Amino acid sequence: MTEEEALRLAEALVFASAAPVGARALSQLLPQNMDADAVLAALRERYAGRGVELVEAGGGVQFRTAADLAPLLRKVIEVPRRLPRVAMETLAIIAYHQPVTRPEIEEIRGTGLSQQTLDALLEANLIAPKGRRETPGRPTLWGTTPEFLTQFGLKDLRELPRREDLLLEPIAASPSREAGEGSEALATDH
Amino acid sequence: MTEEEALRLAEALVFASAAPVGARALSQLLPQNMDADAVLAALRERYAGRGVELVEAGGGVQFRTAADLAPLLRKVIEVPRRLPRVAMETLAIIAYHQPVTRPEIEEIRGTGLSQQTLDALLEANLIAPKGRRETPGRPTLWGTTPEFLTQFGLKDLRELPRREDLLLEPIAASPSREAGEGSEALATDH
Amino acid sequence: MSASEADSLVLRLDGFEGPLDLLLDLARAQKVDLAKISILALVEQYLAVIEGARRIRLELAADWLVMAAWLAWLKSRLLVPDSPEAEEGELAADVLAARLRDLSAIRAAAVWLGARPQLGQDVFARGAPEDHTEIDRSRLALDVGSLMRAYLQAMRRQVRTRRYQPRQLTLWTVKDALQRLGVLLGSLPDWTSLERFLPDGIGSPTERRAALASTLLAGLEMARGGAIRLRQEEAFGPILVRSAAGGVEEGA
User: Fold this and answer.
1) pLDDT-based confidence at C40, cuts 50/70/90?
2) Among A80, C71, C100, C217, which lies 20 to 30 A Cα-Cα from C52?
3) How high is the ipTM of this complex?
4) Dihedral of the CA atoms A83, A86, A88, A89 (nearest 10)?
5) Beta-carbon neighbour count of residue C82 at 10 Å?
6) Cβ of C233 under 8 Å from any chain B Cβ?
7) Distant-in-sequence, close-in-space partners of A15: CB < 8 Å, separation ≥ 6
8) How close C144 gets to chain B, by Cα (Å)?
């Protein structure tokens, strides 16, 4: 198999799949002496700057439309509502503290977790129950799903910024209410 | 919008759409002076000979795996069927009572045996005729095949548990036993 | 914080996600590193906001008031220098500062996540993925366990059927045997054991012996009438029977 043939095959495989494709799945189709990672790297290079790009996500690679085309594509492709700020914060807590119980989430945010928020995250398939904590009451533990990684274009959970890095510039990194942006964020929440 | 930008947009649109994309849908996103048909034609040319090709389908165009690669991507998933209960019972009776005639099987099961069930077992090559009983009517005798042994992972028929080990007490012999076991059977069957 | 600032915060109170959210907002307003904020100043600002809300009789949820009470306690501890109470207060202040940092980090993480191109929002995957998998259902899932269960089920049902339709101990009468012999005679190829004419499905040995006796009597009766021939090679040997029509004559 020539390199070009391997590239065609990888292209077809990743294009066809609804979910990210791992290097292992590709290597099963390639001759022994060919490196799947190298083929995928070459494929990524070929698609760089095009309307469709190869990105790493959820333990594999996936073709996705280029981000700069989103405003035009949204005119024809139906897009679900964005998650409200409350849901995003809850999701962030679950991502960083998983497996985590509902009382722990509420403790961190300093306020109750509404059914609506939980439903929205479950509905979007971003979180899932991960057993129960063996403490009195046996509360359900929550964690993120593989779809969480796919949706936010993360290779794995280690790609999340470290807590220390998040705290470095707390004011710049956070939505500042003084600047009026805060009230906008609040408006989308309610 | 340059020609290259139009090509990127068309590529992303066709890629992200669930249904084939017509020239009209594309032209909604293009500047007035740009010919959507020409853009799609250029896109088709760009993908010619690649692992994924642009093909006409249902009043528009769509990406599709190159025909020569489809067989390589085909993945066959074996989902073994279960035999219907009737067939399994019949097979078990044949295994234990072989060589056995159809009326005898019916007598043991206490109900008629459909041709369909017999055909299913024959088709699966699990049973085979083993001559005829030299009684009036000369009914066909049925027995299990070597394939039966293979499918159940048995070296020979003696590997099956002995009837005595399964039916710890002779079922039909004592009437008093019948009543007890009968109700037990009712409990476990339903 | 001036009075007017506190008043404008009161008006926006229901925009905050609980007391901690307000505290974080106040802390950010101090425009310093969260590690260096003055908890005492923070407490006073929070209490000022709550006081302002009370003044205009804004109804506050319980958690706002619980936090206010706790912060008032904290303030009283922090204001007494060099005492065991102050130490207690400083520990509590540290806990509060840590919680604010945690919330701040989560806020930043949520913003970081929200800024990423989201699948289905900003970037799109293939709208019509192709499925190259094929399901092959030709193989059978067979295991000895299910074979055994099926066998037991069949045997048990047999018992149940009998229980519901109790079979009498049928004694095969000479009349029955005569009828059966008459019907089956035509299909006899050659000498056949008399036992082959016994009815199917005889259960007990008793029934069998009775049936054999009846059949022998019927055979004798028919042989006497000349319809069949009977033969026995040796004493207690099998009794053979065949149709009288056709065939080579042999000793009866």
Assistant:
1) confident
2) C100
3) 0.70
4) 180
5) 7
6) no
7) A63, B51, B52, B63, B65, C126, C130
8) 6
